[in-house]
Amino acid sequence: GLAVPVFDSLGKAIAALSIVGPNDDRLTAHVPLLLAAARGIRRALNPSANT
């Protein structure tokens, strides 16, 4: 599986997003999507945060 952190406006990890699957090689293709989702959550929780 893979996981990426979700940060607050101070850079503190407050949550994580993860995916699991049968083959880690195929999962790595989803890292950019996970990172983008984590950034989107950060912006939604902290609209004034600089990313």
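Next protein, fold it too.
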Amino acid sequence: KDLLVLQRALRNEVPNWDPEESDWQLPIIIEQFHHAKVAPYLPVKRHFVDGPFVQHQAANVQLRLTRHGGCYDSGRSYPDVIRERVLDLAHAGTSQCQIAIELRVSRGYVQKVLQQYTHKNISIRSPRTSFFVPKVTNEVLEFMSVEKIIKPSIYASELRERLLLDGIVDADDLPSASQINKRMRRDLVMSKKKLSVIPSESNTPEQIARQDEYLNVISTFKPHQIHFFDEASVIKTTGNRSYGNATVGEKAIEFQRYASNANFTVNLLHSLSGLDYYNILDGPSNGFELLHFFEDTVEIQRPDGSVLLERGDCVVMDNCGFHHGLFVEPVLRELLNDYGVQLIYQPPYCPYLNTCEYCFQLKEFLRRCHILAMEETKIAIAE
């Protein structure tokens, strides 16, 4: 009823019609409605008037015209009174085409209302199953990309807050967390992966100065003269897998070895040529094991007859506690100096400066070969 009165008023069929004095809840479209007859749609603002109370509620309107001269708001349903009028005319024997012409709606709308009434025996419209999805603009994508580069672990909910607080979008156009995750995968081509953490302590002025000093010293050597040393600990349960499959709603349960008192330590020496030398210890390492490792290393010869550690080379290791032991460090330096090899320590909080970190992919391999890792851990480590 409201829509019919509005259409007639806009066609000047209702003289002296004032919507603010009307008792019905009527949308006030715009004064220049005649422009909508030329443009395919006309975005305007509408206000709702409800009896003596005026609600100053504005919403975007996409005003369009039907082929029969009626108007409708794109994306919004007709009032229920129009649906009831369609059913009344259909029960009176009026054809669908005639109903569409009389009510100035599309024939598809009339057909849809009648089909729903026939199949479901209801006259009210179906609940809305799809809702407005805010558009993610290029500006939003660029902002998301920068935030993810600065802090890859930031949550989608935190991104929503940043988008709103930084004024990138307003509250009405704020994308959901699921939409943010979807656009990151599809448009930014970002996937979920394990973080490679860099300690924030390494960014202090003192540590930066020590890193610069280390780089100045290490840059005096040729690449083939640098040998990196590091340790890694392995237990029998390292190969245990953490993820599995099960029916929805049920836990994934698997028998695995839980407790393990078997601990192994891998000592590794790595250089530009690849793996130089390694050994596997039963139990944890200590300063004496470190000295024994390098006593064996200085005696190793390559297949061509040259020694592994030549004069002018250097050995780089981290700042583990027993590496600086009271007797370990002086003895190790003296041992290496006898062979013309220099000992250099990495700056603290910089494990990424040791190439051995990129060789230690033991856990991934042990999970693939978990039976071998549980029964023959040493062989699995060597493989």
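About the second fold: Confidence is low (pLDDT under 50) at residues 10-15, 19-59.
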